[in-house]
Design a protein that fits this description.
Blueprint lengths: L5 E5 L4 H14 L2 E5 L9 H7 L7 E5 L2 H11 L3 E4 L5 E2 L10 E4 L8 H6 L2 E4 L11 H13 L5 H9 L1
Parallel strand pairs: 1-2, 1-6, 2-3, 4-6, 4-7, 5-7
Helix pairs in contact: 1-2, 1-5
Length: about 160
């Protein structure tokens, strides 16, 4: 079984957000799975601009559709955690595992019901300020940080060894 947190993006709409998430992933040492079709050309100049030179070091896996992603995920025996405004369980009250996949929906529409139902858990980032939703790149950063912290992975592990 694999031992690394992954970020999955379901049919992302905005190249800049995907580029920012790829930069985050490169810095944090995680892989990004893009479940196609994307709403833009993945070799788009805007994607490269947002990801800057980090795109060369980012680990990216593309899946032609959700069915292909699910086939791969189930073969890998990985848990799928959907971050959704429709969820009830706060993301800070969840026990993450090193092989979890953190799934984020389309900026414009989230994920369809069949994807929502396929998730092993649905997690919420509470917004006590009353906002409707957060930017997907910001949400991914919050989620990856929270998932890695208790596991001693990535940047958290490095920070601990420097003390």
């Amino acid at each position: 079984m694999a031992q690394d947190i992954r970020i999955a993006l379901y049919q992302p709409d905005i190249a800049g957000n995907t580029g920012t998430i790829l930069r985050l992933a490169a810095c944090m040492g995680v892989t990004v799975d893009v479940i196609e079709p994307a709403g833009f050309d993945l070799s788009n100049r805007a994607l490269k601009r947002a990801g800057m030179d980090y795109l060369e070091t980012a680990a990216l896996t593309r899946h032609v559709d959700f069915a292909a992603f699910e086939t791969w995920r189930r073969a890998e025996k990985r848990r799928l955690l959907l971050f959704s405004t429709k969820a009830a369980l706060p993301y800070t009250r969840f026990d993450y595992r090193a092989d979890d996949i953190l799934l984020f929906g389309r900026e414009s529409a989230g994920v369809p019901d069949h994807v929502h139902e396929a998730a092993d858990e649905r997690l919420l980032i509470p917004m006590p300020g009353g906002g409707r939703s957060l930017n997907v790149a910001l949400t991914a950063a919050m989620a990856v940080g929270e998932a890695m912290r208790p596991l001693g992975l990535g940047a958290w592990n490095t920070a601990r060894t420097r003390r």
